[in-house]
Write a structure and sequence with these properties.
- The chain is an alpha+beta fold.
- The protein has two domains: about 40 residues; about 70 residues, no CATH class.
- Helices cover about 65% and strands about 15% of the residues.
- A hairpin with a 2-residue loop joins β1 and β2.
- This is DUF3679 domain-containing protein.
- Pfam families: DUF3679.
C-alpha cells in the first residue's frame, strides 16, 4: 500500500512539473514565432500597485470601481427574471415543507 501511494504521488508530481514545463515552452514558442520583441504584447490581467492607488486592467482595458458600480446598477434596474432560479426556490420550499410535515407526523 505504501509503495502504491509513493508511486501515485510520484506520478502526480511528475505530471504537475510536466504541465508547468509545457506552459513555459508554449510561452517561449509564442515569442519566437513572432520573431521580434513586441512591447505591446501584454498579459491578460495586469495589476499596478502604486502606494494607495491600485489600477487593474483586463486585456488592456482599465477597470475601475465606477465601472463595476454602473454595471451593478444596470443589473438591478433590469430586474432580470431567471426561470431556473424561481423554479429552484419553489422546489426547495416544497421539499422543506414536505420534510417538515413528515417530521411532525413521525414525532406525534
Amino acid at each position: 500500500m505504501k509503495l502504491f501511494m509513493l508511486k501515485s504521488l510520484g506520478i502526480a508530481a511528475l505530471m504537475f512539473i510536466s504541465v508547468l514545463a509545457g506552459m513555459q515552452l508554449a510561452n517561449d514558442g509564442i515569442h519566437r514565432m513572432k520573431g521580434y520583441n513586441d512591447p505591446n504584447f501584454q498579459k491578460a490581467v495586469t495589476i499596478n500597485d502604486k502606494g494607495n492607488d491600485l489600477h487593474a486592467s483586463v486585456m488592456g482595458n482599465q477597470i475601475t470601481s465606477h465601472d463595476i458600480e454602473t454595471k451593478k446598477k444596470k443589473l438591478e434596474e433590469m430586474n432580470a427574471f431567471n426561470l431556473f432560479s424561481s423554479m429552484g426556490k419553489k422546489m426547495s420550499e416544497g421539499i422543506s415543507g414536505a420534510s417538515k410535515k413528515l417530521v411532525e407526523s413521525i414525532s406525534k
